[in-house]
Design goal:
Blueprint: E1 3-14, E2 17-28, E3 32-36, H1 43-49, E4 60-68, E5 71-72, H2 80-86, E6 87-90, H3 101-111, H4 117-130, H5 134-137, H6 150-162, E7 168-172, H7 180-193, E8 198-202, H8 206-212, E9 215-220, E10 223-229, H9 230-235, H10 240-246
Helix pairs in contact: 3-4, 3-6, 4-6, 6-7
């Protein structure tokens, strides 16, 4: 098993509030790992630790280790821009830029210095195909991205992430703002992407975690209560808190 991330003794606090307590877990390459737990349990905070998005929050203090490909990403001279290129992020609400569909996907490659028209066209097409969106938008690439439906906008944001050729895709509740049909399309897309990418997904939807993920981590009050294969977590949880949560006794 190839580990992409190794998390060890990770503690995080905002001012006086401890949000993560001694987290220790590994994330395997080209698998889908779901982070579940009630609101405020630390799962989104942990997700943001993986590409140092928490750096943008004032009074955030982190101790411990997050190793990406055997390098500690919290060392002083670590290249955070390169990290965020390799570890892409898809947010809870679709956030397309107010520009054309084509320009949304081409934005990142252009920022990296890619200017050739043919090369950009190839990158955009490949990303849209991989995001299962190309057939729906191929005749309207110059339309404003904001004209797309919510589910299409979220797939566009996934395409925008894919265009940067990341190794890891982080997803923070990517379907919570979508209807069931759009949600099903995104879930199908996520499962299809794991052949190429390592995916970590935060979800409130336990059925979604059970459907799409290979591994599941259950968090409660900033602690990692249990981590294992999704079949084991949902079929034979070892901790009573896990069983209570997945059977709906609390949360």
């Amino acid at each position: 098993m190839e580990q992409v991330f190794e998390i060890d003794e990770l503690n995080l606090r905002y001012k006086d509030k401890q949000a993560l307590i001694n987290i220790k877990m590994d994330i395997e390459a080209k698998k889908i790992t779901a982070l579940i737990g009630p609101s405020g349990c630390g799962k989104s905070t942990l997700l943001r630790c993986l590409n140092r998005m928490n750096d943008l929050i004032d009074n955030c203090f982190i101790e411990g280790y997050v190793r990406y490909e055997n390098n500690d990403i919290y060392t002083k001279n670590y290249d955070v821009i390169e990290l965020r290129t390799k570890v892409g992020m898809v947010f809870q609400k679709p956030n397309p830029f107010p520009m054309s569909i084509f320009d949304n996907v081409a934005y990142g490659p252009r920022c990296q210095g890619i200017k050739g028209k043919k090369e950009l066209q190839d990158i955009v097409k490949k990303a849209l195909v991989n995001a299962a969106l190309y057939d729906e938008v191929k005749d309207r690439l110059n339309d404003n991205a904001l004209s797309l439906s919510g589910g299409q906008q979220q797939r566009l944001c996934i395409a925008r992430t894919i265009a940067m050729e990341p190794e890891v895709i982080l997803m923070d509740e990517p379907t919570s703002a979508l209807d069931p049909i759009a949600t099903a399309k995104i879930e199908e897309l996520i499962v299809g992407l794991k052949d190429k990418y390592t995916i970590v997904i935060v979800t409130h939807n336990m059925q979604q975690a059970a459907r799409v993920s290979d591994y599941t981590a259950f968090f409660l009050l900033g602690r990692l209560v249990e981590f294992g294969t999704t079949d084991q977590i949902f079929g034979q949880p070892k901790q009573k808190e896990t069983e209570d949560y997945i059977t709906g006794r609390f949360g």
